[in-house]
């Protein structure tokens, strides 16, 4: 289940798209992680302005990454090892210019 704070969800071309505003609002979920296992997550994203960045991590900085985006849909990925204390996966817009659009999030055990 995804939890979103100040994030609009829209339907677009058969996808549910999260619109992340430039105010660090978070989209998060607590998957059924296995402790001390490595995971990889993939997602498609685009920005209103080329070079704007999306931040994603498993809580506690595992897999922490800021990814510069283009204005076209593109698939990205990140990875991290999950501990018993940190179980939440986060996404947020780490830019201040415009919205970021996020869809098709998938999580894999590495």
Summary keywords:
mainly beta, 5-stranded antiparallel β-sheet, 10 strands, globular
What does this 3D model show about the protein?
- This protein has 110 residues and is mostly beta strands.
- Helices cover 0% and strands 60% of the residues.
- The chain is built from no helices and 10 strands.
- The chain has strands at residues 2-4, 8-12, 15-20, 26-29, 37-47, 53-58, 62-68, 74-82, 89-93, 100-109.
- The strands form 2 sheets. It has a 5-stranded antiparallel sheet with strand order 1-4-9-6-7, with no helix packed on it.
- The two termini are 21 Å apart.
- The relative contact order is 0.33.
- The model has no long low-confidence stretch (mean pLDDT 86).
Helix-strand blueprint:
Elements: E1 2-4, E2 8-12, E3 15-20, E4 26-29, E5 37-47, E6 53-58, E7 62-68, E8 74-82, E9 89-93, E10 100-109
Largest sheet: 5 strands, antiparallel
Please compute the radius of gyration using only Cα atoms: 13 Å
Q: Taking strands numbered 1, 2, ... along the chain, how are they ordered across the largest sheet?
A: 1-4-9-6-7
Q: Can you write the helix and strand succession as a string?
A: EEEEEEEEEE
Poorly predicted segments: none
End-to-end C-alpha gap: 21 Å
- What sort of overall outline do the alpha carbons produce when their principal axes are compared? globular
Quick check: average pLDDT?
86
> Given the structure, what is the number of helices?
0
What structural class results from the helix and strand content? mainly beta
* Helix proportion: under 10%
What amount of the residues lies in strands? over 45%
Count of β-strands: 10
């Amino acid at each position: 289940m995804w939890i979103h704070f100040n994030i609009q969800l829209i339907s677009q071309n058969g996808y549910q798209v999260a619109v992340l505003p430039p105010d660090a609002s978070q989209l998060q979920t607590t998957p059924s992680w296995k402790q001390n296992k490595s995971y990889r997550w993939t997602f498609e994203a685009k920005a209103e302005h080329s070079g704007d960045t999306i931040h994603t991590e498993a809580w506690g900085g595992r897999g922490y990454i800021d990814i510069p985006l283009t204005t076209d849909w593109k698939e990205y990925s990140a990875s991290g090892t999950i501990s018993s204390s940190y179980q939440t996966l986060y996404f947020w817009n780490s830019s201040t210019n415009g919205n970021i659009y996020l869809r098709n999030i998938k999580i894999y055990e590495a």
